[in-house]
Amino acid sequence: MPLVSGKEILQAAKKGGYAVGAFNVNNMEIIQAIVEAAEEERSPVLLQASQGAIKYAGLDYIVALVRVAAGKVSVPVALNLDHGTSFDQAMKCLRGGFTAVMLDGSHYPFDENVALVKKVVAVAHAVGVSVEGELGRIGGTEDDISVDAKDAYMTLPEEAKKFADLTEVDALAVAIGTAHGVYHGEPKLDFERLSAIRKIVDCALVLHGASGVPDEAIKRAVKIGVQKINIDTEIRQAFTNGIKKVMAEKPNEFDPRKLLGPSKEAMKEVVKSKMRLFGSSQKA
Ligand code: G3H
Ligand code: ZN
Predict the structure, then answer these.
(1) The pTM is what?
(2) 69 located within any domain
(3) Which bin fits 183, alpha (ψ -120 to 50), beta or left (φ > 0)?
(4) How many CA atoms lie within 13 A of 172 on its CB side?
(5) Catalytic residues, which ones?
């Protein structure tokens, strides 16, 4: 079916008490793996492209590939700009056919972040596209940071409410202890902070850096009220491990399809298991 707005998917998730995976895409095999997994699980899904993905594949290629993939299935699929950094780029994505955009102004002072996101919301909402903002910094490990500094780094509940009210975002990425990339040690999520935010903020909440977070922690975050969960690293790992496995077993293999086929199946399995974990399976 045609791409749907991120808002439609996230509102249904909030109502139904589950979260939807937002999986990063870079090429055809990754897109096929995610969309086929969604169809087989009967799950709504968000595909998302980062700055790096747009630079690597090209915005037009990403939109075209995702549209074709979504057109072959009967579950809701949205295409999101992940960690968008500028107004201009968000506009290019709107024009290109994205149905959700994230404007990550978390590195700016609060007021600048609000002003930038508000500008994007005004245009995006006019054409039915949802917007995600970010407050707090989702970075590396928090181990060396003192409690005060850590507090300043993580999302403050009162600020989150103010941000959501002022910008009218559809989704808000919160910093509660997760980090992008591979974890060195077990991540410790601040569930009290998440509950405090959930109590006073109405829009969908987003968990970034969810690869490598233990299943029990994910379940708890979903129960408290996260609606969108971002996964990139675990897909990359499945992709490259699949290629490494074929190369180890058949060092003389030179057919790209024989290298990438098993990777696609491995990514599919990762995506399906996340959909079951997030509670989005059978919700489409
Ligand atoms: O925006 C993308 C995600 O936050 C990626 O997180 O590196 O844990 O997969 P990840
Ligand atoms: Zn992220």
Answers:
(1) 0.96
(2) yes
(3) beta
(4) 29
(5) 82
